[in-house]
Amino acid sequence: MLNVNDFTVGILAGGKATRMNNQDKGLIEINGQPLIENLLRKIDKHTSNIIINANRNISLYEKYNFPVVCDKLDNYQGPLSGIYSMLGFISTDFLITLPCDCPNFKWVVINTMIDKANIKTDEIYIAHNNIRSQPVFMLIPKAKINSLHQYLSNGDRKIDVWYKNNKHKYVYFDKTVNYFENINTIEQLNEYNKE
To answer: What is the pLDDT of residues 169-184, one digit of tens each?
Structure first.
């Protein structure tokens, strides 16, 4: 099992959000609170090893007093670009990635993942809700940065193809949990704001 000093939590907020009229997802509000703030509130009571991957509105993200890491690759090349950039930034041995748009996230997700891994692991751990994998919820050894660099250099971007080309394990959660629900459309956002 890893302890809290072995990993950094990296929040992915660097996407283009084309299905949400290109809004900056992390700053979209649910019931008056930005999504990034909702997520940070659930994490920062457990660890201060937090970084945010963002590609716009940098000064707004910096107000949360955690390092903000921009993609090293231009033109919004997907979550793997953000993950690669964060792996290059962290000083811990592991990175745990979370999307910024998961309003129902609970720390138990991270607790369960670190419970499965040990400090010497060279495997990637991916959350799975017993319906499908949830690959933006991942525990990645920093040593995987070279594998990811090579994959991105070849022009590849699919997250599931990359992790399947590496040693990996799934961390299973009950299919009834809503931890992994995310907001991709204006309609979904409106539904959450009705609650």
So the answer is: 999 999 999 999 988 7
